[in-house]
Amino acid sequence: MHLNQIKSFITVSQVLNFTNAARQNGVPQSTISRQINDLEQQLGVKLFYRTKRDVRLTQEGRAFLPYAQEILDAAKKGAFAVRQLHEGAEGRLSIATIDDSDQFLAMCLQEFSRKYPGIIVDLTYVSHGEPLQSEVDDPYDFHFHYLDMIPDSEEYEIRETHTTQLCFVSPKTAHADMLKPDDDTCFVDGLDLSSLPHQKFILISEEENPILYMQIMNYCQTHRFTPQIANRFSDIKSVLLSVGSGLGISILPLKAAEILSALPQTGIQVTPIDDESYAITCAVAWKKSLLNPAAELFLQIIEEHLE
To answer: Angle at Cα 300 formed by Cα 296 and Cα 305, nearest 5°?
Structure first.
Protein backbone atom coordinates (compact mmCIF):
# COMPACT_ATOMS: atom_id res chain seq x y z
CA MET A 1 0.00 0.00 0.00
CA HIS A 2 1.58 3.28 -1.17
CA LEU A 3 0.84 6.92 -0.30
CA ASN A 4 0.11 7.70 -3.95
CA GLN A 5 -2.58 5.00 -3.91
CA ILE A 6 -4.07 6.49 -0.75
CA LYS A 7 -3.98 10.00 -2.23
CA SER A 8 -5.65 8.84 -5.45
CA PHE A 9 -8.35 7.01 -3.49
CA ILE A 10 -9.14 10.09 -1.38
CA THR A 11 -9.25 12.38 -4.41
CA VAL A 12 -11.58 10.08 -6.36
CA SER A 13 -13.83 9.73 -3.31
CA GLN A 14 -14.09 13.55 -3.16
CA VAL A 15 -14.75 14.33 -6.82
CA LEU A 16 -16.30 10.96 -7.85
CA ASN A 17 -14.73 11.27 -11.27
CA PHE A 18 -11.50 9.61 -12.43
CA THR A 19 -10.74 12.26 -15.06
CA ASN A 20 -11.15 15.15 -12.59
CA ALA A 21 -9.15 13.26 -9.97
CA ALA A 22 -6.29 12.79 -12.43
CA ARG A 23 -6.36 16.50 -13.33
CA GLN A 24 -6.38 17.51 -9.67
CA ASN A 25 -3.42 15.23 -8.85
CA GLY A 26 -1.52 16.21 -11.99
CA VAL A 27 -1.21 12.66 -13.37
CA PRO A 28 -2.72 10.75 -16.33
CA GLN A 29 -6.11 9.11 -15.80
CA SER A 30 -4.50 5.71 -16.44
CA THR A 31 -2.29 6.27 -13.39
CA ILE A 32 -5.31 6.96 -11.15
CA SER A 33 -7.10 3.86 -12.48
CA ARG A 34 -4.05 1.64 -11.96
CA GLN A 35 -3.47 2.91 -8.40
CA ILE A 36 -7.12 2.33 -7.45
CA ASN A 37 -7.05 -1.16 -9.00
CA ASP A 38 -3.83 -2.05 -7.16
CA LEU A 39 -5.27 -0.79 -3.87
CA GLU A 40 -8.45 -2.79 -4.34
CA GLN A 41 -6.40 -5.93 -5.06
CA GLN A 42 -4.32 -5.41 -1.93
CA LEU A 43 -7.43 -4.91 0.22
CA GLY A 44 -9.36 -7.66 -1.51
CA VAL A 45 -12.48 -5.51 -1.95
CA LYS A 46 -14.04 -3.10 -4.42
CA LEU A 47 -13.80 0.51 -3.26
CA PHE A 48 -15.93 2.07 -6.02
CA TYR A 49 -18.94 1.21 -8.16
CA ARG A 50 -17.94 2.32 -11.67
CA THR A 51 -20.22 2.75 -14.66
CA LYS A 52 -19.95 4.86 -17.81
CA ARG A 53 -22.10 7.53 -16.18
CA ASP A 54 -20.99 7.76 -12.58
CA VAL A 55 -18.63 6.67 -9.79
CA ARG A 56 -19.80 5.84 -6.27
CA LEU A 57 -18.11 4.59 -3.12
CA THR A 58 -18.96 1.06 -2.07
CA GLN A 59 -19.77 0.29 1.54
CA GLU A 60 -16.19 -0.94 1.93
CA GLY A 61 -14.91 2.28 0.32
CA ARG A 62 -16.87 4.42 2.77
CA ALA A 63 -15.51 2.39 5.68
CA PHE A 64 -11.90 2.72 4.45
CA LEU A 65 -12.06 6.49 3.72
CA PRO A 66 -11.47 7.89 7.26
CA TYR A 67 -8.53 5.52 7.78
CA ALA A 68 -7.04 6.54 4.43
CA GLN A 69 -7.29 10.18 5.47
CA GLU A 70 -5.55 9.40 8.77
CA ILE A 71 -2.73 7.63 6.90
CA LEU A 72 -2.20 10.60 4.57
CA ASP A 73 -2.39 13.16 7.39
CA ALA A 74 0.10 11.19 9.49
CA ALA A 75 2.52 11.06 6.57
CA LYS A 76 2.20 14.83 6.03
CA LYS A 77 2.75 15.55 9.72
CA GLY A 78 5.81 13.33 9.77
CA ALA A 79 7.31 15.01 6.71
CA PHE A 80 6.57 18.44 8.18
CA ALA A 81 8.24 17.58 11.51
CA VAL A 82 11.33 16.12 9.81
CA ARG A 83 11.66 19.22 7.63
CA GLN A 84 11.49 21.49 10.68
CA LEU A 85 14.12 19.51 12.56
CA HIS A 86 16.37 19.56 9.51
CA GLU A 87 16.05 23.35 9.44
CA GLY A 88 17.29 23.52 13.03
CA ALA A 89 14.11 24.73 14.72
CA GLU A 90 11.86 22.99 17.21
CA GLY A 91 8.94 24.10 15.09
CA ARG A 92 7.42 26.96 13.16
CA LEU A 93 4.01 28.61 13.47
CA SER A 94 2.54 30.82 10.74
CA ILE A 95 -0.25 33.29 11.59
CA ALA A 96 -2.19 35.77 9.46
CA THR A 97 -3.91 38.52 11.43
CA ILE A 98 -5.58 41.92 11.36
CA ASP A 99 -4.75 44.64 13.87
CA ASP A 100 -8.17 44.39 15.54
CA SER A 101 -7.11 40.99 16.92
CA ASP A 102 -3.84 42.26 18.44
CA GLN A 103 -4.98 42.10 22.07
CA PHE A 104 -6.30 38.52 22.00
CA LEU A 105 -3.45 37.28 19.81
CA ALA A 106 -0.79 38.91 22.00
CA MET A 107 -2.28 37.24 25.07
CA CYS A 108 -2.04 33.82 23.38
CA LEU A 109 1.46 34.42 21.99
CA GLN A 110 2.85 35.50 25.36
CA GLU A 111 1.87 32.19 26.91
CA PHE A 112 2.98 30.26 23.83
CA SER A 113 6.46 31.82 23.80
CA ARG A 114 6.82 31.11 27.51
CA LYS A 115 5.90 27.44 27.12
CA TYR A 116 7.62 26.79 23.78
CA PRO A 117 10.51 29.25 23.38
CA GLY A 118 12.17 27.16 20.66
CA ILE A 119 9.27 27.45 18.20
CA ILE A 120 9.54 30.21 15.60
CA VAL A 121 6.42 32.33 15.06
CA ASP A 122 5.80 34.07 11.73
CA LEU A 123 3.24 36.90 11.84
CA THR A 124 1.72 38.46 8.73
CA TYR A 125 -0.70 41.39 8.85
CA VAL A 126 -3.27 41.06 6.08
CA SER A 127 -5.86 43.40 4.64
CA HIS A 128 -9.22 43.46 6.41
CA GLY A 129 -10.73 42.90 2.98
CA GLU A 130 -8.66 39.83 2.16
CA PRO A 131 -10.73 36.61 2.42
CA LEU A 132 -9.24 33.24 3.31
CA GLN A 133 -7.79 31.14 0.52
CA SER A 134 -8.76 27.55 -0.07
CA GLU A 135 -7.02 25.10 2.23
CA VAL A 136 -4.83 23.80 -0.61
CA ASP A 137 -3.27 27.23 -1.24
CA ASP A 138 -3.36 28.50 2.35
CA PRO A 139 0.17 29.06 3.76
CA TYR A 140 -1.02 29.95 7.29
CA ASP A 141 -1.78 27.77 10.30
CA PHE A 142 -4.20 30.30 11.83
CA HIS A 143 -6.20 33.29 10.63
CA PHE A 144 -7.33 36.01 13.03
CA HIS A 145 -9.93 38.00 11.13
CA TYR A 146 -13.43 39.47 11.17
CA LEU A 147 -15.97 36.67 11.45
CA ASP A 148 -17.90 37.95 8.41
CA MET A 149 -14.75 37.72 6.26
CA ILE A 150 -14.23 34.01 7.01
CA PRO A 151 -16.16 31.84 4.55
CA ASP A 152 -18.46 29.16 5.91
CA SER A 153 -16.32 26.28 4.67
CA GLU A 154 -15.98 22.65 5.65
CA GLU A 155 -12.20 23.11 5.39
CA TYR A 156 -11.92 25.31 8.50
CA GLU A 157 -12.81 25.33 12.16
CA ILE A 158 -13.97 28.77 13.32
CA ARG A 159 -14.30 30.21 16.83
CA GLU A 160 -15.34 33.71 17.85
CA THR A 161 -12.68 35.46 19.94
CA HIS A 162 -14.09 38.89 20.83
CA THR A 163 -15.98 41.91 19.53
CA THR A 164 -14.30 45.16 18.59
CA GLN A 165 -16.14 48.32 19.57
CA LEU A 166 -16.24 51.32 17.23
CA CYS A 167 -15.56 54.94 18.09
CA PHE A 168 -15.62 58.47 16.74
CA VAL A 169 -12.23 60.02 16.13
CA SER A 170 -12.12 63.82 15.93
CA PRO A 171 -9.51 66.60 16.25
CA LYS A 172 -9.24 67.78 19.84
CA THR A 173 -9.89 71.38 18.85
CA ALA A 174 -12.90 70.50 16.71
CA HIS A 175 -14.22 68.21 19.42
CA ALA A 176 -14.57 71.18 21.76
CA ASP A 177 -16.70 72.98 19.16
CA MET A 178 -18.97 69.96 18.92
CA LEU A 179 -19.94 70.13 22.62
CA LYS A 180 -23.30 71.68 23.51
CA PRO A 181 -23.99 70.93 27.16
CA ASP A 182 -27.12 73.06 27.60
CA ASP A 183 -29.54 71.96 24.85
CA ASP A 184 -31.61 68.84 24.13
CA THR A 185 -29.47 67.45 21.36
CA CYS A 186 -28.43 63.77 21.39
CA PHE A 187 -24.89 63.21 22.67
CA VAL A 188 -22.31 60.42 22.82
CA ASP A 189 -20.00 61.23 25.75
CA GLY A 190 -20.57 64.90 25.05
CA LEU A 191 -20.19 64.61 21.28
CA ASP A 192 -23.06 66.37 19.51
CA LEU A 193 -24.53 63.86 17.07
CA SER A 194 -26.55 66.57 15.32
CA SER A 195 -23.28 68.01 13.99
CA LEU A 196 -22.32 64.79 12.17
CA PRO A 197 -24.17 65.53 8.88
CA HIS A 198 -22.13 68.72 8.59
CA GLN A 199 -18.75 67.10 9.25
CA LYS A 200 -16.26 65.86 6.67
CA PHE A 201 -15.44 62.17 7.12
CA ILE A 202 -12.04 60.54 6.58
CA LEU A 203 -12.62 56.80 6.21
CA ILE A 204 -10.83 53.51 5.71
CA SER A 205 -11.59 52.47 2.13
CA GLU A 206 -14.29 49.90 1.46
CA GLU A 207 -11.78 47.69 -0.36
CA GLU A 208 -9.44 47.63 2.64
CA ASN A 209 -12.10 47.05 5.30
CA PRO A 210 -15.55 46.26 3.84
CA ILE A 211 -17.05 45.22 7.21
CA LEU A 212 -16.04 48.46 8.95
CA TYR A 213 -17.21 50.51 5.96
CA MET A 214 -20.58 48.74 6.00
CA GLN A 215 -21.02 49.39 9.73
CA ILE A 216 -20.20 53.08 9.27
CA MET A 217 -22.80 53.35 6.51
CA ASN A 218 -25.31 51.50 8.71
CA TYR A 219 -24.67 53.94 11.54
CA CYS A 220 -25.15 56.97 9.29
CA GLN A 221 -28.30 55.51 7.74
CA THR A 222 -29.78 54.76 11.17
CA HIS A 223 -29.11 58.36 12.22
CA ARG A 224 -30.59 59.61 8.95
CA PHE A 225 -27.72 61.30 7.23
CA THR A 226 -25.31 60.62 4.38
CA PRO A 227 -21.68 61.17 5.38
CA GLN A 228 -19.70 63.79 3.49
CA ILE A 229 -16.64 61.69 2.63
CA ALA A 230 -13.62 63.94 2.09
CA ASN A 231 -11.12 61.12 1.59
CA ARG A 232 -10.52 57.38 1.94
CA PHE A 233 -7.30 55.63 2.94
CA SER A 234 -6.11 52.04 3.12
CA ASP A 235 -4.53 52.36 6.60
CA ILE A 236 -5.52 53.73 9.99
CA LYS A 237 -2.38 55.85 10.45
CA SER A 238 -3.24 57.93 7.39
CA VAL A 239 -6.78 58.40 8.67
CA LEU A 240 -5.53 59.52 12.10
CA LEU A 241 -2.95 61.87 10.60
CA SER A 242 -5.68 63.50 8.51
CA VAL A 243 -8.08 63.75 11.45
CA GLY A 244 -5.39 65.13 13.74
CA SER A 245 -4.58 67.74 11.09
CA GLY A 246 -8.17 68.96 11.17
CA LEU A 247 -9.21 67.57 7.77
CA GLY A 248 -12.26 65.74 9.13
CA ILE A 249 -13.53 63.14 11.59
CA SER A 250 -13.73 59.36 11.35
CA ILE A 251 -15.19 56.17 12.77
CA LEU A 252 -12.66 53.47 13.60
CA PRO A 253 -12.21 50.33 15.74
CA LEU A 254 -11.78 51.56 19.31
CA LYS A 255 -8.66 49.62 20.40
CA ALA A 256 -6.63 50.57 17.34
CA ALA A 257 -7.66 54.21 17.66
CA GLU A 258 -6.83 54.30 21.38
CA ILE A 259 -3.36 52.83 20.85
CA LEU A 260 -2.45 55.18 18.03
CA SER A 261 -4.07 58.22 19.66
CA ALA A 262 -1.70 57.77 22.61
CA LEU A 263 1.27 58.50 20.35
CA PRO A 264 2.77 62.00 20.66
CA GLN A 265 1.33 64.80 18.53
CA THR A 266 -1.64 62.87 17.15
CA GLY A 267 -4.01 65.57 18.44
CA ILE A 268 -7.15 63.46 18.30
CA GLN A 269 -10.09 62.76 20.59
CA VAL A 270 -11.53 59.23 20.85
CA THR A 271 -15.24 58.86 21.69
CA PRO A 272 -16.57 55.27 22.01
CA ILE A 273 -19.82 54.23 20.35
CA ASP A 274 -21.48 52.17 23.07
CA ASP A 275 -24.19 50.71 20.82
CA GLU A 276 -23.25 47.02 20.46
CA SER A 277 -25.19 46.70 17.22
CA TYR A 278 -22.27 48.41 15.49
CA ALA A 279 -19.54 46.30 17.11
CA ILE A 280 -17.65 43.90 14.83
CA THR A 281 -17.14 40.25 15.77
CA CYS A 282 -13.61 38.86 15.42
CA ALA A 283 -12.74 35.19 15.11
CA VAL A 284 -9.92 32.71 14.63
CA ALA A 285 -9.95 30.05 11.91
CA TRP A 286 -7.71 27.05 11.36
CA LYS A 287 -7.61 24.11 9.00
CA LYS A 288 -9.46 21.00 10.11
CA SER A 289 -6.56 18.99 8.72
CA LEU A 290 -4.11 20.62 11.13
CA LEU A 291 -0.78 19.12 10.08
CA ASN A 292 1.70 21.27 11.98
CA PRO A 293 2.59 19.94 15.48
CA ALA A 294 3.40 23.50 16.61
CA ALA A 295 -0.08 24.61 15.50
CA GLU A 296 -1.66 21.91 17.65
CA LEU A 297 0.20 23.30 20.67
CA PHE A 298 -0.94 26.84 19.86
CA LEU A 299 -4.53 25.65 19.40
CA GLN A 300 -4.52 24.31 22.96
CA ILE A 301 -3.63 27.78 24.24
CA ILE A 302 -6.31 29.44 22.09
CA GLU A 303 -8.96 27.09 23.42
CA GLU A 304 -7.86 27.70 27.02
CA HIS A 305 -8.28 31.46 26.59
CA LEU A 306 -11.62 31.07 24.82
CA GLU A 307 -12.96 29.01 27.70
So the answer is: 145
